[in-house]
Specification:
Largest sheet: none
Helix content: over 70%
Structural class: mainly alpha
Number of strands: 0
Strand content: under 5%
Distance between the termini: 60 Å
Length: about 80
């Protein structure tokens, strides 16, 4: 019985290791792509870079404002 349990533990560890490697590779690839796009845009087309930065800031502000509004509405409805 212990041998079967050891085999199951080893199989689970192998599966977790493969999954971890796959996720790490995917993360590294996406991070590299983002950095390449970031630096290419920054150096080749600074106007587009600055525009995207401005839009990102505006989107974050709008998203935060909407979340605060949702929270206030929820609190208001929970009080009554």
């Amino acid at each position: 019985m212990k041998i079967g349990l050891k085999k199951m533990v080893i199989a689970e560890k192998d599966e977790a290791s493969k999954k971890w490697r796959r996720e790490l590779l995917l993360f590294s690839g996406i991070a590299t792509l983002i950095l390449v796009l970031f630096f290419t845009t920054l150096t080749q087309i600074p106007v587009v870079f600055i525009t995207l930065q401005g839009l990102t800031v505006l989107l974050v502000i709008c998203y935060t404002f909407l979340q605060i509004q949702k929270h206030r509405e929820k609190v208001r409805h929970d009080e009554y």
